[in-house]
Design goal:
Length: about 140
């Protein structure tokens, strides 16, 4: 009778698996914060770009009607003729008034404390002040 050799089952030892897990953990600990920091920066850039677009729309509304909307009318005046002005030529935004990148509405105040009007986002934390991604993004 011929002798058959049984194939040996080779695998990873527990020590090898632990070493790989530690390396993956170290890489994630280094790369993760850098990645999320870039996401925060892009949200701030998006908010600044949206504020600039809203400013242009507000300026166009002012050119047409002769005035900026009141605080009560708010940014909705860019989409609907809230005071039935015959000179209103909107809507002034194609897709409606956007929320800030954190899902909260932009704040609008007329007359403004920092200019003719104030247009701003409270940032990631949704509260006045803050730093980094939580800082306020403003039109002034």
């Amino acid at each position: 009778m011929a002798h058959r050799s049984v194939p040996s089952c080779s695998g990873f030892t527990l020590l090898e698996l632990l070493v790989v897990m530690v390396i993956i953990g170290l890489l994630a600990g280094y790369v993760g914060p850098k990645y999320f920091q870039q996401i925060g920066k892009s949200e701030v850039k998006t908010a600044k770009a949206q504020i600039a677009a809203l400013e242009q729309s507000l300026d166009q509304l002012r050119l047409d009607t002769g005035h900026y909307p009141s605080t009560e009318q708010g940014l909705n005046a860019l989409m609907t003729n809230t005071d039935n002005d015959t000179r209103w030529s909107g809507p002034y935004l194609k897709k409606g008034v956007p929320n800030d990148p954190w899902g909260k509405p932009y704040q609008y105040r007329f007359p403004g404390q920092h200019g003719e009007y104030d247009l701003f986002s409270y940032g990631k934390d949704g509260q006045a002040g803050g730093s980094d991604e939580s800082q306020d993004i403003t039109s002034w």
